[in-house]
Amino acid sequence: MKIAIASGKGGTGKTTLATNLAFYMAESESVVLADLDVEEPNSGLFVQGRLHHRETTYKMIPVWNKDLCTHGGNCQTVCNFNAVLAMPRSVMVFPELCHGCFACSELCPTGSLPMTTKPMGELKHLKTGALDFIEGKLMIGEEQAVPLIKQTLAYIKRGFPENIVKILDAPPGTSCPVIEVTKDADLVILVTEPTPFGFHDLKLAVDTVRHLEKRFTVVLNRFGIGDDKVTRYCEEEGIDLIARIPNSRKIAEIYSAGGLLYQEVTEVRDAVKSVVAYIHNHSIGQES
Ligand code: SF4
Ligand code: SF4
């Protein structure tokens, strides 16, 4: 069972929900929590565990061989990501922009762009109790999140059976990295806040998950600030708003100290329980 926690913008409480939901569920069953916000993972701030596995991850990039090149420029033409610049006397590759699609390499008539590995990031796996925590983290300056997300998801797929609960902390936004995380999820939980920015970005996120034809729900964080536009929007659109996490100084203090809110704040425990009840009542992950 895969549950992706996503949001239209950063800072809405995605990690709060992902970590609290994961630890709460791990009190009674095995759970995998994966931080796939690979540019800025921070779920790990809440996890103290035993290191089980750590590896450097790599991506494939082309390397120009000037001795073979005949300077026709085909490599630049076929690259959809502007990662190759073919000049009259040389070819430049921009590894940060390269998606490792092999097109330039395979379509180079002289074999002047063999692919080679380049370190991209790190994958870390911690264990604590019934919780397995897996984090993908891009190296500084590395811009392509999708290859590392794919590798992290593949690591999870290899290591855990289908029926284990997997909570995927997605990157914020609505672009390719989020789609990579949510496209195979059984449920997407969109976390938002009752502010104009939250409302605006929630609508974009809803458009994205509807386009992907995903089952989704909404959790409202910092309930009590702003206005009721998110609540009314969910009612009008027939979207289940399954839990509200209140705005409070106590929550902010516990969070900033790396604490687990559901253990100390009744309203957060109730919110997490509501999410679990929704998952069970709707047989998420058990559909045929
Ligand atoms: S496609 Fe190959 S031969 Fe042509 S310019 Fe690029 S590297 Fe050189
Ligand atoms: S491998 Fe693909 S993305 Fe990378 S430089 Fe070549 S064509 Fe562009």
Tell me what the structure shows.
The chain starts with a strand and ends in a 7-residue tail after the last helix. It has a nine-stranded mixed sheet, sandwiched between helices. It has a two-stranded antiparallel sheet with strand order 4-5. Helix content is 32%, strand content 26%. The chain has 288 residues and is an alpha/beta fold. Bound molecules: iron/sulfur cluster (2 copies). One iron/sulfur cluster binds next to helix 2.
Task: List strands and helices in order, with pairings.
Blueprint: E1 2-6, H1 14-25, E2 31-35, E3 50-62, H2 74-78, E4 84-86, E5 91-93, H3 103-107, E6 115-128, E7 131-138, H4 145-159, E8 165-169, H5 176-182, E9 187-192, H6 196-211, E10 216-223, H7 229-237, E11 241-246, H8 249-256, H9 266-281
Parallel strand pairs: 1-8, 1-9, 2-7, 2-8, 9-10, 10-11
Antiparallel strand pairs: 3-6, 4-5, 6-7
Helix pairs in contact: 1-9, 4-5
The structure holds iron/sulfur cluster (SF4) (2 copies).
Please tag this protein with its features:
288 residues; alpha/beta; nine-stranded mixed beta sheet; two-stranded antiparallel sheet; 9 helices; 32% helix; elongated; binds iron/sulfur cluster; CobQ/CobB/MinD/ParA_Nub-bd_dom; metal ion binding; iron; ATP binding; 4Fe4S_Fe_S_CS
Heterogens: iron/sulfur cluster
Query: How many DSSP E strands?
Result: 11
SSE topology string: EHEEHEEHEEHEHEHEHEHH
Oligomerization category of the chains in this entry = single chain
Q: In what range is the share of β-strand residues?
A: 25-35%
Summarize the biggest pleated sheet.
9 strands, mixed
H/I helix tally: 9
Shape: elongated
Placed side by side, the strands forming the largest sheet appear as 3-6-7-2-8-1-9-10-11
Low-confidence stretches: none
Helix content: 25-40%
